[in-house]
Amino acid sequence: MPDIVVKTEDVVKEYRMGSNVLRALDGINIEIQRGEYISLMGPSGSGKSTLFNMIGALDRPTEGEVYIDGQNMSHLSQRQIAAFRCHRVGYIFQSYNLLNVRTAHGNVTLPMIFAGIPEKQRNEKAEKLLDKVGLGDRMYHLPDELSGGQRQRVAIARALANDPSIILADEPTANLDTITGREIIDLIKQLNTEQGVTVISATHDLKMLDVSDRIVDIRDGLVERIRNRDEIEIEVGEVGGHE
Amino acid sequence: MEQQRPIEEQIDLPFLESLRISFQSLKIRFGRSIITTAGITLGIAFLVSVWTNNEIEFALQESGRSSEITNIDEAAEQGISTKDIWLIIMSLIVCVVGIANSMLMAVTERFREIGTMKCLGALDGFVVRLFLLESGFQGFAGALIGALIGLLGAVILGLKNYGLDLFFYFPLLPARPENGPFQLGVLLLILFGCVLGMILAVIGSSFPAWRAAKLPPAEAMRTEV
Ligand SMILES: Nc1ncnc2c1ncn2[C@@H]1O[C@H](COP(=O)(O)OP(=O)(O)OP(=O)(O)O)[C@@H](O)[C@H]1O
Ligand SMILES: [Mg+2]
Fold first, then answer.
1. Domain ranges of chain B
2. What CATH number does the domain containing A48 carry?
3. Which of A11, A41, A113, B44 is deepest in the core (most CB within 10 A)?
4. What is the DSSP string of B14-73?
């Protein structure tokens, strides 16, 4: 029996703007297995980020349920949701979302501070993680002093701080050039294969296709189709031809 | 779904840890913190100078050494004139609005930071506490400096009007306490200015911070300033 980490049941998200109601998600049903690398693809405005927010407990669905590790997220208390964000998920955003007032090292230690990990231990771990993402020599720089690619590496190190079982990445390469983007993708893929972290990533980036186990195509707030790895490989060739 | 690891409850952060984070944040954003603090300083300086000036005039009129010899008797009878009450109330309003505005701006530009901290596991209470500490410290420092500047301003004006007599009749304590609540004496006035500045800064910052902390992180992070 497959081990399902994330399951959504008829998830609907509506945004109300005055009298207008915008249905950003229109009943999403997906199941994601532990250790999978999933890419959410779809045109701009199709609802990828909205779904990302639902899975990561960054917002509540208007209708439907999200289950993580078999837990119905709508049944959790505020404290449990905070602990969930702290321990279970590592978030990576398009715009990095580092805290500008903290150094690279300070950004990586923050989730560990929230988790109550003793100072010495968390400092060591932050150093180890920053080393791992290739920023061993930039640890005490502020985000403003780092390049886009370096900032995203800090964000990845920070996402790993509390050994999450899920990495959620919303267009992690959108602000990066092709080569840097490639490096970031490889880094995330490496975490996926070596540590068995489940990766769920929203993306436009075709480079993401060939590292994905499955691709979920989202269109107008619905799952249009789900493609497996073997179906993808053929299409990557086609896509490459168009570029 | 076999692996049902239950989700634990998030812990509270020790107070010292919060204090450290808030000081780091003040330190690194020093330039910006100074601007916010200056907003508080200005408000309190204005209030304290107007008020002190008033107390000085009243005290020297009491002593019969007023430069404006116009209506000593009236002033002595009524305590403080309507014009002066009006001035003090106006300066209080300017002070409240000014401080609330600079705190609100300082919090609003940090909505994204608040959303991000919540992604990393911050409890709403921690966010509010962080802003409470930062603004309390800024409020106190800003208000103390403001009160001293305001006092200095009023003393200079007093010296110009009354010369050294000012110091003989300086209203450290209320000149005539029975003449109504607008007389505090300069000592109490400075204390009042500091407390007021701190309270306004704390309210002006924790209230918007509390509202931001209540937002789902996705929404807080969307806010662009
Ligand atoms: N907070 C919000 N308020 C109102 N409408 C929103 C909000 N967030 C998203 N939307 C709308 O919901 C729809 C889906 O948005 P979403 O951000 O999920 O798209 P996306 O697939 O991530 O697009 P992109 O590839 O451009 O990031 C869009 O039409 C968007 O305008
Ligand atoms: Mg998006």
1. 20-65+73-222
2. 3.40.50.300
3. B44
4. PHHHHHHHHHHHHHHTHHHHHHHHHHHHHHHHHHHHHHHHHHHHHHHHHTT--SS-TTHH
Q: Pick the ligand that lies closest to the CA of residue A50.
A: 1
How many helices (H) and strands (E) chain A has is answered by 7, 10
pTM: 0.87
Quote the CA–CA distance of A10 and B61 in Å, as a whole number: 79
Residue with tokens 């305001």: B150
The per-residue pLDDT for range B170-224, each reduced to its tens digit, is 787 776 666 666 677 888 889 999 999 999 999 999 899 999 999 999 999 987 6
Among protein residues, the one with the nearest Cα to ligand 1's atom 2 is A15
Give me the residues paired with residue A219 across strands: A222
This complex has an ipTM of 0.90
Q: Which range of residues forms the domain containing residue A200?
A: 31-61+71-242
Mutate to test the pocket of ligand 1, among A17, A41, A50 (most ligand atoms within 8 A of CB): A50
DSSP 8-state code for residue B13? P
- Judging contacts by C-beta atoms under 8 Å, the chain B residues touching residue A168 are none
Token pair for residue A42?
């779809």
